[in-house]
Write a structure and sequence with these properties.
This protein has 160 residues and is mainly alpha-helical. It has one domain. The protein is elongated, with a radius of gyration of 23 Å.
């Protein structure tokens, strides 16, 4: 007997493919819709949306950083040098945060093994960005730090 998904040869009596994790037959090893399963997709999409929102001020700041020297009077040499640099660095920081949010969201949707740990760290950091960051941080920690979430996420990551 072979797995329908990956083609691995299965031993008689297997309920789960050892390579891809596909359920064989009628028996399920986890409930069909567990708490983590119901919320993981939503959490991944929220992280992607929040990451995309961080990209907007990033692009604005980096663009303004390249043209702000025009608005600063010519007598302020230090301001003409430091102003654009500060705006560009701030924009680049926002770019890194936005890209991190998008990557974590994608990782959660794809059930990557690293995504749970990174999402927990970013969820803790998001607690300090009220009101939406705080809400996302609380939701992330509520979904991913439940007692049964680690084992179930590890199982989902191996199956993906």
């Amino acid at each position: 007997m072979f797995c329908d998904r990956c083609g691995t040869q299965l031993q008689p009596g297997y309920n789960l493919c050892p390579k891809c994790g596909k359920v064989i037959g009628e028996t399920l090893s986890f409930p069909a819709q567990s708490r983590l399963g119901r919320h993981l997709h939503t959490l991944g999409i929220l992280w992607i949306v929040v990451g995309a929102f961080w990209l907007i001020p990033s692009i604005v700041l980096m663009t303004l950083g390249s043209v702000v020297h025009i608005a600063i009077p010519g007598t302020e040499a230090v301001a003409r040098m430091v102003g654009p640099l500060v705006m560009f660095v701030l924009g680049a920081t926002f770019l890194v945060v936005g890209a991190g949010g998008i990557c974590v969201g994608w990782g959660l949707l794809q059930r990557q093994p690293w995504a749970r740990t990174v999402a927990i760290v970013l969820g803790i950091l998001a607690l300090f960005h009220p009101p939406f960051g705080t809400a996302l941080g609380i939701y992330t920690l509520w979904v991913l730090l439940a007692a049964e979430s680690r084992g179930e996420y590890d199982h989902l990551a191996r199956a993906a």
